[in-house]
Amino acid sequence: MVKKYVYFFGGGKADGNESMKNLLGGKGANLAEMAGHKDLQLPVPPGFTITTEVCNYYYKNNKTYPEGLKEQVEKSMKKIENLMEKKFGDVNNPLLVSVRSGARRSMPGMMETVLNIGLNEKTIPGLIKQSGGNERFVYDAYRRLIMMYSDVVMEKAAGIEPQNEEMGIRRQLEKIMSEMKKEKDVSSDTELTVDDLKKLCALFKERVKNVLKKEFPEDPYEQLWGGIGAVFASWNGKRAVAYRRIENIPDDWGTAVNVQAMVFGNMGDDSATGVAFTRNPGNGENKFYGEYLVNAQGEDVVAGIRTPAPINEYSKSEHNKNLISLEKYMPDVYKELFNIQRKLEKHYRDMQDIEFTIEKRRLFILQCRVGKRNGPAAIRMALDMYKEKLISKEEAIMRVTPSQIDELLHPIVDPKEEQTNKPIAKGLPAGPGGATGMIVFTAEDAVNWTKEGKKVILVREETNPEDVEGMRAAQAILTARGGMTSHAALVARGWGKCCIVGCGALHIDYSSKTLTVNGVTLKEGDWITLNGTKGNVYLGQLKMMDASESNKLLFNFLKLCDSIRKLKIRTNADTPEDARKARAFGAEGIGLFRTEHMFYGKGSEEPLFILRKMIASKTEDERKKALNELFPYVKSDIKGTLEAMAGLPVTIRLLDPPLHEFVPRNEEQQKELAQSLNISLEEFKKRADSLHESNPMMGHRGVRLGITYPEVTEMQVRAIFEASAELIKSGKKVEPEIMIPVVSTVQELKDQLIIVRKVYSEVIKKYNLKKIPYLYGTMIEIPRAALVADKIATVAEFFSFGTNDLTQMGFGFSRDDIGNFVPEYIKKGILDEDPFQTIDQEGIGELIEIGIQRGRKVRKDLKVGICGEHGGDPRSIEFCHKVGMNYVSCSPYRVPIARLAAAQSVIKENKDRKKK
Ligand code: PEP
Ligand code: MG
């Protein structure tokens, strides 16, 4: 038996359903579901889907089709004919079809579409009859077919490469059309007369023949197979491949092809087409939202050539408030559409993006899919749908991605700056947040300038899929044309990128790379600032601000996550300010306070100067003197941080820098230090030289410093205990954890513990306290330490995995030098990803598991966490959860992301368990 390659849908039935996405593609499965599911049975134009298997066959077999496909396609065409009561290629009552792509995951605008297939000189009169004598509509459809088909099928799919864009057939035909408009002195396509259009079609066909050396095909089936081939070919088109790389879509998924009866939104003023969302994708409000265009085809909405009208009052904006809404224009159709969108959302239990067409007041649903949304909208929708009992708590949590949370943490334009700066233009707010950058006019420049480290804003008339890489590189996107469903808006929304579209006041001149807006001329490289939430464009580089802390919805959502997660979330913070910020983000403690960081970039040079003195000391006496001077600074920083954390655990790591990092290279500073140490510059230089190490990362750092200079440990431990004692005395709670870095043997820990205990009893006595609660523990960041974790845990009360060093020493990759080779490793597929960003579970992960297992064998209640950079990486967090850590610790800005990732880890684990 021949395999089934074609799945039919229509007339309240369908061969496929939603669960067959891999085979039918997202669109095909969705059309089948909408047409055939008993709760829906929506008015979908009938059609069929050619499976993704055919796409893979096509590429494996030299662009040919499997046996039996032809018959299956023809049989399905007959079924469409029956349902539509029209005939493909019929002179009196012709059926027209569309041919569209449809991969497993939506790739908006990345592949080809051909509409109006089946139209030719012979069927034209029949279509005129069908349309009630609307000749203009028919010739317009014909000229669209010629334009699309000659470009997509005859040129692109045939592999004809014009020397430049101008010489491409599409541009040439567009030029003919604009010349005709100029000649007729009209500005819009719709002003061209029937005769104009007839002439245009003839001119088009002549040009096609001259340029492509081939007659435009009149045979409907030839047109159909041409369209099908073009869609399959476009799976490997440049822009589809680029998009797949960005979105990590495997090449072997392939695309399906959907052939469907054409319905027309451009049959006159009683026809229309539009895009609607069951909730507002810009802010998540539970309000039906959308746009439509009277007497237009779907491509007109997406192309952004005309400004679409709002479907209802709610969808009105500055931009389209004077246009009549669908609700008012065709109340009955609107009502039907409204009911359908409710059904669809209930059925899919998520916000849907719906494409519809109205042909002579008859509504057709062309497609629906889960609507893309930005971070703020994702969070609002998840919370609302949970409250509405449409989805469970777990589903709500899974609906938001870590990067969407990240979006909310991104900067906005400082509102104060917005009060004092007037926008130079206003457009539609298509992507939230603020951005500032230099103007570039091409996607290519956006990519190149960004590579040079510049911040750019890509300014275009409108974007198309060829611009995707540039859009990705840019800080933000600004277009002169297009609506909220234009290409730029859709793509930016998917990425959560700041974006303003339809900014009509912009007059862009690509050739001179300038932009004129309300009398001001800007050139490439000039700075502008966008507020993508409001749609405001400002001149110059305005100050940005972080809005995250005041975002109430985000915090409600994160609370939901907190009710599920098991991992605690701590932060890596080195100053009281960082600690406060992290607490506002929900940190439940500090997992890593890097003592040495308090000396970096201080306004006052003083503590750094003393630290340098301490490092350059030769004798214990000199060192002790410097340490005594340093003591009050260290103590006050620790005290401030403990206080800011209000009784939450604070892991203070003892000094761990490679020492030479702190030796000044500048002779002026060297002189000053020499003077204060009472030594000659020469002697100072000698000492500095003696600090030089061949492998400082594996040199005299961490605990090794404390072993050779016990007074360094003593000073720090005293600072910790005295800061704690003083806080306790003033009625505050503290929970310090003393952490020893770079440990490889338990003996090191034992050595340092003697100092800790000695200082502890001195401080208790001094402050007349019974007790200061504290823990004594270590980092596990050297492979040996993980292996002898059972011995180490006899002394350490907690482990914190320093996965930066553990990765460095586990791989033997110097963490400061990976730039020279890791990218090549990834490019060549030797590594899947940078192991310093995401834990290498196979190797470093194994070390971690061994460490935890052996540690807990001797100390059941051993507290285990992670403080390497991986603590803020969602996939690494999932791993930390799986191996039974108590907490992860990450930079303040990643705390919200970690809260979500930790909750999602629990949900995924439960799901996996159920599967088993
Ligand atoms: C680590 O090694 O993972 C760590 C947190 O310490 P640092 O990055 O300071 O070496
Ligand atoms: Mg380390």
Name the features.
binds phosphoenolpyruvate, 916 residues, 35 helices
Give a short summary of the structure.
By secondary structure, the protein is α/β, with parallel strands linked by helices.
Topology overview:
Blueprint lengths: L5 E5 L2 E2 L6 H16 L10 E4 L1 H9 L8 H16 L2 E2 L5 E2 L1 E7 L9 E5 L6 H7 L4 H23 L11 H16 L9 H19 L7 H15 L3 H10 L7 E7 L10 E6 L11 E6 L3 H6 L5 E2 L15 H4 L1 H18 L3 E8 L2 E9 L4 H13 L5 H6 L3 H7 L2 E3 L1 H6 L4 E2 L1 E4 L2 E7 L2 H9 L4 E5 L7 H6 L2 E4 L7 H9 L2 E4 L4 E4 L4 E4 L2 E4 L3 E5 L4 E4 L4 E3 L5 H11 L5 E5 L3 H9 L5 E5 L11 H11 L3 H25 L4 E5 L13 H11 L3 H10 L12 H6 L1 H20 L5 E6 L5 H22 L7 E6 L2 H5 L1 H4 L5 E4 L1 H9 L10 H6 L16 H15 L4 E4 L7 H9 L4 E4 L4 H21 L1
Helix pairs in contact: 4-5, 5-6, 5-7, 5-8, 6-7, 13-15, 13-20, 15-35, 21-23, 22-23, 22-24, 23-27, 24-25, 27-28, 34-35
The structure holds phosphoenolpyruvate and magnesium ion.
- Biggest sheet strand order reads 15-25-24-17-18-19-20-16
Give the helix/strand class: alpha/beta
Low-confidence spans: none
General shape = elongated
Helix content: 40-55%
E-strand count: 34
Ligand inventory reads:
phosphoenolpyruvate, magnesium ion
Structure explained in plain terms:
With 916 residues, the chain is of the alpha/beta class. Helix content is 45%, strand content 17%. It has 35 helices and 34 strands. The strands form seven sheets. An eight-stranded mixed sheet has the order 15-25-24-17-18-19-20-16. Strands 27-28-29-30-31-32-33-34 form an eight-stranded parallel barrel, surrounded by seven helices. The chain has a six-stranded antiparallel sheet with strand order 2-1-3-8-6-7, sandwiched between helices. Magnesium ion (MG) binds next to helix 31.
